[in-house]
Design goal:
Elements (H helix, E strand, L loop, with lengths): L1 H45 L2 E7 L13 E10 L2 E17 L5 E16 L7 E5 L2 H8 L11 H6 E5 L2 H4 L5 H8 L6 E4 L2 E7 L4 H17 L9
Antiparallel strand pairs: 1-2, 2-3, 3-4, 4-8, 5-6, 5-7, 7-8
Amino acid sequence: MDSFLGLAVPALIAAVFVVVVGGNVWGALSRRRDGSHGLSAWAREHGWYYCHGTIRVPWHDLMGLSSFRVRRLLHGRSGALWADVCHCTYETRGNSGTGSGWTHSTTTVHDIVVAAAELGGGRPGMEVHRRGLGSRMARALGKRAEVESGDDEFDRRYRLESGDPDAARPFLSPELVQAHLRDEITPWRLERGTLIVVEDGVLEPAEIGRRLQNLERIAVLLGHRGGLAG
């Protein structure tokens, strides 16, 4: 009997492990298939192009992220823009220690959604992002950014960075400032004429409309008035 239990218990544990792990993997695969189906259905309904896999896009090198990959891509016309909305991943690596003094490397895969559109030339590279605690404290102690709006609330919560501050300053209009303060638009980046908005998470069909409205609104606030960029 003891020998039977000695064989049966590990077998039972292994079976439970296979069921649990297998269920999790199957669930993840099912969610992935469901997500792809929902995105392809959205694309058909709106007349957009959809593909999945490992995809190369024109703005790939602008991301500057380790092991950046576009996994799912939607491309089509949104207002006065040709836009991409993508589910992307990137990796970060780190080391963790053990009680015995050994360390081993770990890799974490992050999911993000990127919305991008080509606005054309005539605008400097610039980026608006939310200030972290350290940045807010530095500003409170007198360290000011090279580009400030003159609106104290905006300059306390956000920072605009640019390699050409004088050229970027006119684009920080009162309308853009107020749109950020009312949380009507999200942080964004403009580089080599390409507008890029990055948010954490995975691409869901229900969120595509909001992401496109956000992209269009930022483009308009930056002076894009039409002339569809291909």
